[in-house]
User: Which sequence fits this backbone?
């Protein structure tokens, strides 16, 4: 019962999410296929995940805004101390690279294959003393639930369905976000999101939050189609535009029609 | 030999003691004027019946208390956590009581249906002029039941002590505070002190399960007793006069049809309760006054007030040294205007039309363009407020900013009702002039005639 | 009306299916199947019941004429009405204003006196709501702690970070009016009202978390624009500018809590908020 598929959800976002996943799968497949010929370990062979190969991609795609040594320009911030963590988050969620510096930073399919991302991440990590990609440990969802409600629910919604903050910026839905990306976002505070220091939430607490976030979404749909767990707005739409019309149709069928017509039928 | 077929003998024995046969005979032969729109109130009646039955079951498991308890059960993320007894028992009911979730969800859907069908019923009565003499009293009883229904639904929504309903109570508290002179005392009286207090759940529970349903039951009885005494209105037609009722008899045709509706209402709310998740309080989290979830909104029957609160400009001012807070206008004045207007409508209508006659034949909506205009304008006004209450959904669909949507809605909330009112008036006037059966049959000529008529009337 | 010989097949079938649905519900319950099975079976059972009854009634209806009944309701004939009036008003005692007045006084006195115990629904005598609402338990020197009770140092917050804080030693669920939102912003971005320069420690500013409109927790912080938004009615406050409302219905700024650090470097309050917290009320 709790394993209800998402197809019943109402918002088009899920379609988009499915498309994103599909695109990511296709990308990953082609990357693995294209480079895997004659290799026993296709994933490792798809590129050289070393800082030096990362630097080549960086100079080609990132240096426009972040500067040739990642020290930043007036179009983009310095990356010297952001660390591998932020680089991994921005690249693996497709938020970077941007086509032009004035573009909105939005998540999407990643622009690179895994190996290239690893190389770029390694390069950015080598620029300074920023934090590395977090090592995930299995967390406690019970503790995570409380921390999530206190720190995350205001913007992402208690159900993780996502909503808006000021300026109409979205706080994204978290149901399909990879565990590593959740952990990174807590520290990085991408875009409008406030960052959380390790004194505020230690690594154990982040792991707990990640564990709770991981089981948001369909595991919470015990009562049937989840209606996106969006709350009274969508429930009200269903009540007014599905439930009530059903009953109105039923009484229309049950009851008699306008008297003139029934009168004519009898005569 | 014992037969399972009904025998007249037990009934005869009962009649020997009570002598009900002659009354029963006339009850069975009572004539119901039969039109499908007359069954809207019945949807509300049967929803109420379902609410009572399912509510009794829920009350056996729900614990109305803010005291902290430790939850143990199948909802893993809350295992061993300290939450309020109200919240723990609601999650328990949803995850650990077999069938409990079905009853809880069906109860919630039935509450939606109860209020929605009352609103539709009210619109039918309003548009056909069925509130006119001699039915003013039943009209006011109906409005009272609508208000009580909304209040009780809101109380029920607040009981589980989850993060959404806790925020709802917070807004209710702010609205109570905003009432001039007595506001702070009233809020303290209701909440036992400064928000949140420890008592509000128990108090709302008492109102929700006992006082308000009891009053509703009495009012429903009065509503029906008056209806039986006065008999239904009926639509005009051959042989239908102000002094008679034409329709079908209670037994067996109408009774079976009505029972069928009862079963249909139960079927609808049970199917919805089984297949469509509503108010998953475990996903909202427990109420903690320092935290919040978003979107943080109420169910639709309250959402229009929230929408108005969102659109209202940021003004507050002092009168004789007393602050008139911002939330007073939409939280107190707006509902008072709407429900006050509804209460007084039979008398306002009489003043407008000068019609003091007794009416048992319903009017067609077109007979009073004013009523059509007012009903369209009010419904569109409330619809715009509901849209304002759903702003975040529009942001997510369109990508516009909240500020832009708010600005547009601040204009639309005046323009659209005005437009809808004028359009309603125009169409009703055109129909009245044309003697056509349906709005869709109206041609350009009829519409122009409708305009001319109005222009003449104004001059 | 003629009674048909045979039971209508569709009606019988519908009733049997209804019984089947009920049996399905019972089976789902016993087997512990989920919510959809329970609701689907019982709802389906009622749906078939509705269908059967509807069909049955329409079969009856087809053979029924329109019945006509005269309306009996209306004013009672004058004579009977007068008799009723006489029965009501003929009293064995003289019509006396004093008598009725005394009875009215008694009833009103009982009514008025028995309303008084409603006062017990409020906190004890001597507490004026306006005084309670006007102030919060924040005092000079009170430490700020997290919901878990941990004291807070300014650099516990990342730049752009937020945390919800409460006065040390008080239950946050009871003293909701103390709920405080700490935000750390670059100190140079701050444009606070005059006299508040030393209310900030290392860019950490503290405001009441309760919206000045309807009192919801203003929990949605946008780091890029330093704005706090309330999810209830979408008021937006500028954190750098004394939490001035810049959008939506909130009529005045969030009250600010003056901050300082104690000897151990933990954040403490310098006193109460700069004004009453939460929604406005009449005797403000």
Assistant:
């Amino acid at each position: 019962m709790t394993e209800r598929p998402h197809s019943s959800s109402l918002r088009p976002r899920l379609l988009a999410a499915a498309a994103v996943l599909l695109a990511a799968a296709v990308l990953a497949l082609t990357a693995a296929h294209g480079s895997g010929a004659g290799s026993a370990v296709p994933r490792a062979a798809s590129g050289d995940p070393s800082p030096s190969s990362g630097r080549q991609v960086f100079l080609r795609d990132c240096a426009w805004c972040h500067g040739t040594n990642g020290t930043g320009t007036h179009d983009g911030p310095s990356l010297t101390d952001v660390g591998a963590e932020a680089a991994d988050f921005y690249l693996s969620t497709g938020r970077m690279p941007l086509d032009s510096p004035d573009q909105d930073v939005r998540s999407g399919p990643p622009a690179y294959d895994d190996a290239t991302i690893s190389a770029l991440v390694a390069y950015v990590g080598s620029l300074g003393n920023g934090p590395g990609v977090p090592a995930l440990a299995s967390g406690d969802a019970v503790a995570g639930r409380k921390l999530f409600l206190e720190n995350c629910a205001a913007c992402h919604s208690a159900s993780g369905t996502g909503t808006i903050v000021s300026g109409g910026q979205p706080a994204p839905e978290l149901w399909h976000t990879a565990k590593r990306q959740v952990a990174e976002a807590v520290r990085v505070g991408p875009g409008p999101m406030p960052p959380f220091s390790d004194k505020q939430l230690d690594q154990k607490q982040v792991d707990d939050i990640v564990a709770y976030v991981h089981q948001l979404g369909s595991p919470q749909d015990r009562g049937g189609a989840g209606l996106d767990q969006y709350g009274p707005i969508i429930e009200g739409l269903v009540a007014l535009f599905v439930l009530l019309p059903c009953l109105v149709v039923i009484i229309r069928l049950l009851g008699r029609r306008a008297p003139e017509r029934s009168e004519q039928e009898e005569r | 030999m014992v037969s399972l077929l009904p025998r007249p003998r037990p009934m005869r024995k009962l009649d020997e003691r009570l002598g009900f046969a002659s009354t029963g005979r006339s009850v069975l032969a009572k004539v119901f004027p039969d039109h499908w729109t007359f069954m809207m109130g019945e949807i509300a009646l049967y929803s109420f019946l379902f609410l009572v039955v399912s509510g009794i079951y829920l009350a056996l498991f729900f614990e109305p208390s803010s005291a902290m308890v430790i939850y143990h059960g199948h909802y893993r993320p809350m295992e061993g956590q300290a939450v309020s007894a109200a919240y723990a028992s609601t999650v328990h009911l949803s995850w650990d009581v077999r069938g409990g979730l079905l009853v809880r969800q069906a109860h919630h859907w039935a509450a939606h249906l109860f209020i929605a069908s009352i609103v539709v019923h009210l619109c039918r009565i309003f548009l056909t002029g069925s509130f006119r003499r001699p039915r003013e009293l039943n009209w006011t009883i109906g409005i009272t039941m609508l208000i009580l229904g909304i209040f009780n639904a809101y109380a029920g929504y607040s009981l589980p002590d989850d993060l959404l309903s806790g925020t709802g109570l917070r807004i209710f508290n702010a609205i109570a505070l905003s009432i001039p002179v007595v506001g702070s005392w009233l809020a303290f009286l209701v909440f036992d002190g400064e928000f949140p207090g420890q008592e509000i759940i128990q108090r709302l529970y008492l109102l929700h399960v006992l006082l308000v349903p009891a009053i509703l039951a009495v009012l429903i009885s009065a509503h029906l007793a008056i209806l039986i005494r006065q008999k239904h209105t009926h639509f005009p037609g051959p042989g239908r006069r102000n002094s008679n009722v034409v329709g079908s008899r209670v037994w067996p045709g109408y009774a079976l049809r009505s029972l069928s509706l009862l079963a249909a209402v139960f079927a609808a709310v049970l199917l919805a309760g089984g297949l469509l998740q509503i108010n998953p309080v475990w996903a909202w989290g427990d109420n903690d006054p320092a935290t919040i979830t978003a979107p943080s909104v109420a169910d639709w029957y309250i959402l229009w007030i929230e929408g108005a609160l969102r659109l209202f400009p940021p003004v507050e001012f002092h009168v004789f040294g007393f602050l008139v807070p911002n939330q007073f206008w939409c939280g107190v004045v707006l509902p008072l205007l709407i429900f006050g207007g509804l209460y007084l409508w039979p008398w306002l209508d009489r003043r407008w039309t000068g019609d003091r006659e007794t009416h048992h034949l319903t009017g067609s909506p077109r007979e009073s363009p004013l009523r059509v205009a007012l009903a369209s304008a009010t419904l569109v006004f409330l619809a715009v407020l509901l849209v304002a209450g759903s702003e975040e959904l529009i942001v997510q669909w369109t990508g516009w900013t909240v500020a832009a949507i708010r600005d547009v809605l601040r204009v639309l909330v005046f323009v659209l009702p005005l437009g809808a009112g004028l359009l309603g008036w125009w169409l009703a006037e055109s129909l009245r002039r044309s003697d056509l059966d349906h709005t869709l049959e109206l041609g350009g000529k009829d519409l122009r005639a409708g305009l001319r008529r109005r222009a003449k009337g104004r001059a | 009306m003629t009674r048909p010989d045979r039971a209508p097949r569709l009606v019988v079938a519908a009733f049997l299916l209804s019984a089947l649905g009920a049996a399905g519900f019972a089976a789902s319950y016993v087997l512990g199947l989920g919510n959809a099975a329970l609701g689907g079976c019982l709802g389906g059972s009622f749906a078939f019941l509705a269908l059967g009854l509807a069909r049955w009634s329409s079969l009856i209806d087809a053979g029924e004429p329109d019945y006509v009944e005269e309306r009996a309701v209306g004013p009672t004939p004058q004579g009977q009405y007068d008799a009723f009036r006489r029965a009501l008003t003929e009293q064995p005692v003289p019509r006396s204003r004093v008598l009725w007045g005394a009875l009215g006084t008694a009833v009103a006195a009982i009514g008025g006196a028995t309303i008084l115990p409603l006062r017990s629904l409020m906190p004890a005598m001597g507490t004026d709501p306006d005084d309670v609402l006007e102030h919060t338990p924040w005092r000079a020197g009170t430490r700020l702690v997290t919901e878990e009770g941990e004291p807070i140092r300014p650099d516990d917050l990342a730049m752009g970070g937020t945390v919800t804080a409460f006065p040390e030693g008080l239950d946050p669920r009871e003293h909701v009016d103390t709920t405080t939102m700490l935000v750390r912003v670059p100190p140079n971005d701050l444009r606070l009202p005059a006299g508040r320069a030393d209310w900030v420690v290392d860019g950490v500013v503290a405001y009441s978390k309760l919206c000045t409109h309807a009192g919801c927790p203003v929990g949605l912080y946008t780091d890029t624009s330093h704005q706090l938004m309330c999810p209830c009615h979408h008021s937006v406050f500028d954190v750098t500018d004394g939490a001035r409302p810049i959008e939506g219905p909130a009529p005045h700024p969030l009250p600010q809590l003056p901050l300082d650090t104690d000897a151990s470097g933990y954040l403490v309050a310098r006193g109460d908020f700069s004004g009453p917290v939460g929604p406005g009320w009449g005797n403000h």
